Amino acid sequence: MRPNDQNLSLHKIKKLSFNDEEPIRLDKFLSDQLPDLSRSRIQRLIQTGNVCVDGDAITKNSFNLENSGQVVEIRVPQSEPLDIDAEDIPLDIIFENDNVIVINKPAGMVMHPSAGHDRGTLVHAALGHDRFLAGIGGKMRPGIVHRLDKNTSGVVLVAKNDVAHQWLQKQFKDRMTEKYYLALVDKHPPTTSGKIDAPIYRDPKNRKKMAIAPSGKGKKAITIFRTRKKFDRYSLLDVQILTGRTHQIRVHLASIGSPVTGDTVYGYATPTMDIDRQFLHARSLSICLPGDEHKTTFTSELPVELEKILKNL
Question: Which DSSP letter does residue 44 get?
Fold first, then answer.
C-alpha cells in the first residue's frame, strides 16, 4: 500500500535502488544516500509513512533492506509555509557560507516571534536576508540554533539547512562549544574569580523569571567568571558558560550579590547608572562548522554604547 498520493506536486519524490550484498537499516541507507537530509528528518519521514520499499509503505526505521534490487521511494514534503513575513532589517553579518550565518545581534532585538513580538525579530530579519531559511529547525524558529536574551548583544549562529542545524545543535547539546561573554556587574563578586555550579529552574513565584533551584530540582548550570577590571562600584567580568540555561549568567551573578548592571529583572529595579539595556555581551563563540573537525572562533567587538560606559567609568 502506497502513502497518500494527494498533492504529490507539493512534494519531492526520490527513487533509490538498493544493490548491496550486506543488509542495512532503512534509515541508515537513506541517510547515506541523501546527505542533504538529517538522520532525524529521515526517521520522521519513515514514521509518517513517506517511505515505500517495493511499493509498500514502511514505518519502522529499523526495517532492513536485504535483497539487491529493492526499490526505495521517499517522498519529502515541502516545508510548512510560515506565518512569518520576511523583513528588510539590516544585519551585521560576521560570517556566512552555504551552511551558516553568524550574526552580531544588537541589544533590543528578540530572537524569534512570540507573544508580543510578532515583528522585528532576528528570525524576520534572517528570512529577509535568506528566504530559504523557512522551515529549517522549526516553524516559528527557522534556523535558530541557540539564543541570546533580548537585551544581550553579540554572536549568534543561524543554520541555513537541516543538516547544518542538526550538526550545530548537537554540539550545543553535548557542551562542545566554547561561549564567552563580557559582563559589567554591580558591586564586586566575593572572589575575583570562581565557578558557580547551581541548578536553575522556573521561578514558582513568577513564571517569567528563572531562579536557583533547591537541591534535587532544576537543570544543571555552570558559570565560570574572572574579574577583568575593578571599578569603584562595578566589576568587569569575563564569563564562560559550560551550560546554556535560560537567563543563566544573569541568575548566577545575581545569586552571588553582583547582578548584571542594567538588569532590572534580576538586579536593581532602577539601574545604578544611565543605561537602557543590561551590560551583557556575547563576545565569542567557538564551534566546529559542518564538515569541519576543528573549531572556528567568531568574535564580536563590544558595542559602542557599552564601550562608552567603560570609558566613563
Answer: H
Q: Which domain covers residue 36, as residue numbers? A: 8-77
CB contact set of 161 (below 8 Å; sequence gap of 6+): 36, 98, 99, 136
Asked whether residue 24 falls in the same domain as residue 39, the answer is yes
- Specify whether the CB–CB gap between 233 and 257 falls below 8 A: no
The answer to whether residue 149 is catalytic is yes
pLDDT at 166 over 70: yes
Candidate list 27, 149, 162, 186, residue with the active-site label: 149
Q: Which percentage of the chain shows pLDDT scores above 70? A: 92
Question: What's the pTM?
Answer: 0.75
Name the β-bridge partners of 153.
281
Which helix (DSSP H) or strand (DSSP E) does residue 210 occupy?
Answer: strand 210-212
Q: Are residues 140 and 186 in the same domain?
A: no
**What rounded mean pLDDT belongs to the chain?**
89
Instruction: Please name the residue that has the C-alpha cell 516571534.
Output: 113
70-89 pLDDT, tens digit each: 999 998 876 554 567 888 99
